[in-house]
Write the structure tokens for this entry.
Amino acid sequence: MSDNIVIAIDGYSSCGKSTLAKALAKKLHFVYIDSGAMYRAVTIYFIRHQVDMDNPQAVSEALNNIHLNFHSRDYETHITLNDEEVSAEIREMKVSEQVSAVSAIKAVRDEMVKQQQRMGQSKNIVMDGRDIGTTVFPKATLKFFMTADPKVRAERRYKEMIANGAQISLEEVFENLAHRDYSDTTRKESPLVRAEDAIILDNTDLTPKEQLAFALDKVKPFLQ
Ligand code: DC
């Protein structure tokens, strides 16, 4: 039996999951896997090829033609879709607007979950997403469920997007987050719920440094 450590981080959109996951991975020298990036890359393919999401055959064909790869550098997410670097494009609003619909498709989830489970088979990893502690790794070593005030989340994401050159209003960002929260928590296929054994981390009033200290304290007992 493998005794690698898996840290699962789930929670709402834009509540700092990736900031924590990256910081933990860096500190512990674990591999960081951004599962949301995978759903986003699949969404790019669906948009470009106008895949009919209601047609199971079309979805299945698309999935057969999609090859995703992570390449790690400085603990940032670098992902390729059929060998093309899409790390910047996955963050664009057109992708954020469609990703909830694409990630609600059962066949898409089944394929992504399979790939994610493979990545965590033998390595120490930190993976963030929506169903990591419930579906992907129900037996994860440690699970966090992150949350924060929706207004604070929207302001953080807005600042990040503006800094990256996006032309967007705070209201649009807030609406997109509210829409994704709703869709992620009410979808039929593995909706976002807190695993019973997940530690709740509300970071509304925490700095990244403080949330890292909180999480490291919980991880410590599992490190030799
Ligand atoms: O973490 P993120 O915002 O980049 O994720 C983008 C979308 O992908 C999110 O709205 C829901 C979906 N997602 C999912 O359904 N399951 C995951 N494990 C990760 C993301």
The mean pLDDT is 94. The chain is about 50% helix and 15% strand. Residues 6-218 form a domain with the Rossmann fold fold (CATH 3.40.50.300).
